[in-house]
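Researcher: Please translate sequence to structure tokens.
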Amino acid sequence: MKKIFFKFTTNFGPLAIFFYVYYNSGKDLIIAIPPLIIATLVSLAAVGFFKKKIAIVPLLGGFFITLFGGLTIYFDNPIFIYLKPTILNISIGLALLFGKYFTKEPVIKKILGDTIPINQEGWKIFNQRWVLFVFGLALLNEIVWRTQSEEFWVNLKVWGTPLISLFFTAFQMKLIKKYKIKI
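Model: Translation complete:
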């Protein structure tokens, strides 16, 4: 139970803090971003301290939040934080897509390791699905920040994207069962 709480807190704590500060500052992104950056860095430090290792995706996320959040504050322009999910998702998608040219196994397998016991064909399909998914998230982010209000974008970022990701992951269970390695 403690592991689940720790993982949940370190994954979603910074977003919850951002959401709280955003709505309690008169919906001001410039005020809400510094606590997001600090909470993200504290979460990464806590994971590094207690687990002795930080996975690449949260590390990249922390880097991008710090970089694009900092640019948003410095230039007093929200376009940078709006672009962060798009650039992060495209970067992940490209790494998953072209990683096969640099490694013998799908990059997603390198990221997830032994957490999912599926065969090589399963990993290949799983990787392809994640490529499409992260490119889809990038496209969704672009459509939303360009056509909707800032508040709508914030709510998508805090509530929508995690739920979409959860549902996408849940729909991968059939693939995982089909290609599961028999032990």
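Researcher: Any highlights?
Model: The mean pLDDT is 94.
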